[in-house]
Design goal:
336 residues; 2 domains; mainly alpha; 7% strand; binds iron/sulfur cluster; two-stranded parallel sheet; 15 helices
Length: 336
Amino acid sequence: MAKRVFSGFRPTGKQHIGNYLGTIQNCVSLQDEHECIYSVVDIHALTTLESTDSLKQDIYDMVLDWLAAGIDPERSIIFVQSHVPEVEELHTLFGMITPLSWLLRVPTFKEKVRTQPDNVNYGLVGYPVLMTADIALYKGEIVPVGEDQLPHLELAREIVRRFNSAYGTVFPEPQAKLTSSPSVLGLDGVQKMSKSYDNHVDIGASPREILERVMAAVTDPARRYRSDPGHPDICNVFRLHQFFSPARVDEIALECRRAGIGCVDCKKLLAQNIASALEPFREKRAILASKRNYVAEVLAEGDNRAEAIARETMREVKEKMKLLQRLDLERAFGVP
Ligand code: SF4
């Protein structure tokens, strides 16, 4: 039987080419071999979000991009974390068996204490427990992660192990699937591509918008004049050509090194190739966006499917923990 994949994503709105090359394509291909559950983890987002004003729109835009990019709601469950409240219940129960010392040593928590000292909320400390509840509630067996998330997954495995040995086995120990997805640098050529650094290109951008963004990209800083030979190996425009112009990278590298091509033409070519690579995506996105309520229907169906799994898991959890359930009251106490 196909192993179950669980993956959660903060609602970040419209997706950019870094998300597309790094995560979305991976999620699409996992569907071929696994039963996949993709969750929009809106509760996690609250640990760092300053305002929830754009949350609804961000969820809509992100899910629409996923669907247009090939995440298939017939094969995968796509749902919103907070719509299945059992996750908070399991989070609380896991909190009872998780030593605080395990949470305080998590590298990302230490980092947040350093970077946002005025907002070290409980949610940040409990983040790995909630993440464990996310995975365990749906009995996720495989979790695609980048190397930086390995400590979280190891903690999730420890919590699950602790529960299984204290109360009896309910949960599989989730296995990390290290993603080989490339980490895509932003147009500034320094930071990872991200909306917060404003160095991104949205996958739904029009060809004109793509051209405007790419023309502002940083190239080889040593190449000041058109006649200067360039260094493609340190140029981020060239790195993006490797994804979007694979058949022409050797030629571009050669022409750049002998100043046969200028940065303006090189960027125009990149913008053109990004726009044509994303054209099928843009077309599908427009069709899906024109279907009234499509995203809402996909999420409602996903919420129902996720909730059915969650309820069954919680029934097992409470039974193992010998927690009295409402239906047991009459049997236990003879309530009329
Ligand atoms: Fe970069 Fe292209 Fe300019 Fe060379 S020609 S430095 S690869 S933008």
